[in-house]
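Page 42, continued from yesterday. The earlier attempt failed because a stray header line got pasted into the input along with the sequence. Redoing it now with the clean sequence only.
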Amino acid sequence: MVNSPTVKRRRLSQAFRQLRQEAGLSVTEAARRLEWEPSKISRMERNEWKLPSVHDIRLMLDFYGVTDEDQREAMITLARESRQRGWWEKYQDVFRTSLPDFEAGASVIRTWEVVLIPGLLQTEAYAKAVWRAGRVLDESLIERHVQARLARQEILTNENPPTLLALIDEAALRKSIGGAEVMREQINHLIAMAARPNITIQVVPDSAGAHPALDGAFVILDFPNDPSLIYTVTVTENLWLEQQVDYQRYGLIYNHVMTLALSPEESVRYLAKLVEQLTG
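This time it went through. Structure tokens are written below.
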């Protein structure tokens, strides 16, 4: 895993929300006593701050009566580290979501895809074909998107990578994105990635029929010291869900679909047959 500034800011947000609640204060009352705007505390607690102020952190620790030196130092260190910039900052022009940042801090990533290969497992040629299908970007911007996606994938081969569990619908594998040669390379890449100890790929066959995950793709991110997150995309927006009820619901859906999927070994054999068909 890579240290993620966004994950650290989220941890700070949760800690200060808990301190305020334990103090029995509303956002408005806490802001009044600190002589801040209520929106400032709300942004902090919703993890909408970019570079936490160490000065503000000390003020809040004093305000909430945190006197334990170890706890204070841990939170101040967290604030300092959360001000660092990750590799994804270089691609702010193409990343419209903080998903790469959260992926970098996750210990386990569970992804379900219906019509496309998961972004973390796409080849360069496949990714280019996907972006070109939009017909709205010039070639230089497509290249920028693709390079950002390839950089995002490096978390899977780092020294301490997250565990990736990928469920892929058979439809995504049979859809000819970029033509036979691109798909053959893509599926061979899936076979190679499935051989890595931290990656498990399972194919959900058409024979599985109707199931609870037909509505669309989603990602479940688990962290070593923080609550899990659910990421899903609609036509108009990216959604982040972090309530326990959401985690339980999506976890159940994911586990149910996994029971319908081919085993990891069967999935690799299925992928190998697809390669043969594409070669023939």
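Notes: The beta strands are 108-113, 163-169, 199-204, 218-222, 229-233, 238-241.
Reminder to self: strip header lines before submitting.
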